[in-house]
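Action item from last week, closing it out:
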Amino acid sequence: MVLESGQSPTLSLYLKHQQQSSEDLGRCVQFLSRLSPQPSAFATISPYDVVPGLMVASSVVLKCLNQKTDPDSVIDTLKTLPLTTPKLKRKMPLLSRSTRGRLGIGTTQLTKEDFKTLAPREWVNGQVIHSFLAVLSWEQKQENNHESLILPCLLATKCSHNDYQTWTFHKVPFHIYETVLLPVCHKDHWFLMVAKPKQQELYNYDSLHSIERSNMFAKHWRQFLIARGQAYGMAPQECTWMESPCSRKDDGHSCGVFVMMNAAAVLARRNPLVMMQCHVNNYRVFVRERLILGEL
């Protein structure tokens, strides 16, 4: 049962609510079972067909209420790979392949060792994360005209050591981008910072839900903006830290995958709560195929 719940989105969603709020879930099941105007219609249907539907429907209703999210997002959660789109026929122009077996995406070079980090229970490395975020960014620009900027994780490392002046990116006009993404690795844990310059908002999608870490890096980001302002010779841009709901990871090695899944949701303008632990293994395969094929 543990194996199935970890791989099945529908079963995982139901068991999660059964564990955390079994009474509410039971009331939802009873309520939905009484909605049919003709209860006798169920008489000719096997309980084995009716009960699973009620279980899933009750889980969807409860998730919508608890997380104050829309039904479409919750229904996406039931998919094996939420928020994935058919491949575009055009290849990513930043893609290159070398005779040494390296795959280049933008300025990042991927080796076989990098791809091995996408195997189950492996800790995904920064090379893979940055490459996939570049692919996502290009995809959303082509499909939805969503302009986004991916900053290197080394920027966050420098900021965590109070070095805000080395990399200010003062020649990069943040204000033209709808979204600025910064993957962060802090104490062997990956999470995703997202800035929306036009709204002057800052989000922190952390699969460990650490408020302390969120506050710390929000301060680092503000100091970074001050350094940018000084390099520009103008007042720093304001930003407000916003509530950043996302799913919590259930293991010790999927934080990097959550960075990629949450980034996919943000760039698609969808709720990151769509992406859950049960999607992790399939998403590892999805990322590997997208990067190797070099097509969207």
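Closing note: The domain at 95-294 is CATH 3.40.395.10 (Adenoviral Proteinase; Chain).
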